Prior knowledge:
- This protein is mainly alpha-helical.
- It has one domain: Recoverin, domain 1, CATH 1.10.238.
- Helix content is 67%, strand content 3%.
- The chain is built from five helices and two strands; from the N terminus they run H-H-E-H-H-E-H.
- A two-stranded antiparallel ribbon has the order 1-2.
- Helix 2 packs across helix 5.
- The longest helix is centred in the last third of the chain and has 30 residues, at 93-122.
- The termini are far apart.
Amino acid sequence: xxxxxxxxxxxxxxxxxxxxxxxxxxxxxxxxxxxxxxxxxxxxxxxxxxxxxxxxxxxxxxxxxxxxxxxxxxxxxxxxxxxxxxxxxxxxxxxxxxxxxxxxxxxxxxxxxxxxxxxxxxx
Length: 123
């Protein structure tokens, strides 16, 4: 079961941030980074992210491939439904880029918030 406390959530978010930064390292633009990330996640080379590919990637990202911390199926189905805006049961590169852009903006906000908290703690 995933950590329910605030510290556990912060640790999980740090893993996500590190993974996203790792994907973006060495890339000149967000577009290039998103293209690279999509290509790495599209393990079968179909040009789309099928449910299994995305679920595996997310569970790997949070370090929960085959254990009790894995993303519950109902939650994943709901998440996938929000991403799959055209309802074709797969995520296109455009759908992925929209998600990546939203995630990156959210992570930037949280990172700024974390930095402010650290500065307050130093006072």
